[in-house]
Amino acid sequence: MTDFFKYQAAGNDYLVIDPRHTDFTVSPETIRLVCDRHRGIGADGVLYGPLEEPRAGAPVPLALYNSDGSDCGRSGNGLRMFALHLAAQEPGGWADGREFTLRTAAGECPVRILDAAAGRVEVGMGRPSFDAADLPLLDEDDTPYRGRAVSVPLTVDGDRLIVTCVYNGNPHTVVLVDDPTPRLARLLGPKIARHPRFPQATNVQFARMAGRNVMELEVFERGAGYVTASGSSACAAASAARELGLCDGRVEVRMPGGSVEISVGADGRVTMTGDAEQVAVGAFAPALRARLGRLATATAARAATAGAAS
Ligand SMILES: N[C@@H](CCC[C@H](N)C(=O)O)C(=O)O
C-alpha cells in the first residue's frame, strides 16, 4: 500500500494522500498527526484526492488541509504538486503540455504542465477580490469593514500598520515593509493572522519591492505558521502590488525557499508559474497506522454521538 506521496515547492511541503492507494481516513486529528514533523511524516498540509476517478475533460476534485487540521480553500504550491502527481499516475508517465482543471473548495483552477522533468507547472489562480467582506475584515468598532480593503490602517501591539487584504480562494493580508525577514514574519505574522479584526484569521505576507517587477516576500500562514514559500501568498502580494501601482503585469516573487513568476492580467486575472518536486513515496509503519486508526475510530464515534443528539 502506498499511503502518501510527499512533494515540496520552494520548501513548502505537502503530503498527497490518494484514496485510490490507501485507506487513510480524513479528520482534523489524523491530518495533524501525519503532518507532525516529530510523530508523523511531517508537512505543511495535505492534498487529499482525487475525490473522484479522473475523467477526460472533467475537473479533478481534491480537498486541501493545513497542518493544524483546518480546511484550506486553495494552495498555489499544492495545486502544482497535485498536477504533477496526477500526471505521474498516468500510464506512460508525465506529459509536457498537458492541461487539465483542478477543483478545490475555493473553485476551479486550470493547470498546465510546462516541463514535467523539471516539475514546472502553470496554474490559473483566478481574479482576486479586494472586498473586505470576502476576507472577512472587521472595522475598529467590530462592525463589518465596508468596501475595498486597500491600504487600510491596522493597529498591532500599539503600532499602526497599513495593510491590503486580498481574497484569492484564501484570505491574505499584505504588509509592505522595508526589510522582510523570517524574524519579522515569525514575530508579527501570528499577531496579524489572529488579529480580532480577522474573524476567520488570515495568511500574512511581508513584502518589499526589490525592483519594479521583483518582490521579496516572507509569509506566515494561518493553519501552518511560518513557511519558506507560499504560492497563493505570492499571488496575493503581486495582486496587491499591482493594485497599488508598484509593479507591471509580471512579477518575480522571491521567497526564502525559492521564487515563482506571477502574471496579473489587465482584468486582474492571475497566473502563477513555478516548480515542484516529489521527494518521497511511502507507507505508514504499523504503529503510526494503528494510531491513525484509533483517531479515525474516535472521530467516527464523535460524529455518531453528534448525529444521535441532533
Ligand atoms: N501554502 C499554500 C497556501 C495555504 C493556505 C492557507 N494556509 C489557508 O488556509 O488559507 C500556498 O502555497 O498557496
TrEMBL record:
Family matches, as Gene3D superfamilies: Diaminopimelate Epimerase, Chain A, domain 1 (3.10.310.10)
Predominant place of localization: cytoplasm
Pfam families: DAP_epimerase (PF01678)
Top-level EC class as recorded in UniProt: isomerase
Key word Hydrolase present: no
Annotated compartments: Cytoplasm
EC number(s) given by UniProt: 5.1.1.7
Highest taxon in the source lineage: Bacteria
InterPro entries from the UniProt entry: DAP_epimerase_DapF (IPR001653)
Residues annotated for substrate binding in this entry: 12, 66, 76-77, 170, 203, 221-222, 231-232
GO molecular function per UniProt: diaminopimelate epimerase activity
Keywords per UniProt: Amino-acid biosynthesis, Cytoplasm, Isomerase, Lysine biosynthesis
Membrane-crossing segments per the record: none
Swiss-Prot/TrEMBL site (Could be important to modulate the pK values of the two catalytic cysteine residues) positions: 172, 221
Biological pathway: Amino-acid biosynthesis; L-lysine biosynthesis via DAP pathway; DL-2,6-diaminopimelate from LL-2,6-diaminopimelate: step 1/1
Catalytic reaction list: (2S,6S)-2,6-diaminopimelate = meso-2,6-diaminopimelate
SUPFAM superfamilies: Diaminopimelate epimerase-like
UniProt-listed NCBIfam families: DapF
Family: Belongs to the diaminopimelate epimerase family.
Subunit structure: Homodimer.
Described function: Catalyzes the stereoinversion of LL-2,6-diaminopimelate (L,L-DAP) to meso-diaminopimelate (meso-DAP), a precursor of L-lysine and an essential component of the bacterial peptidoglycan.
Protein name (database record): Diaminopimelate epimerase
Organism expressing this protein natively: Streptomyces sp. 900129855
Source organism phylogeny: Bacteria, Bacillati, Actinomycetota, Actinomycetes, Kitasatosporales
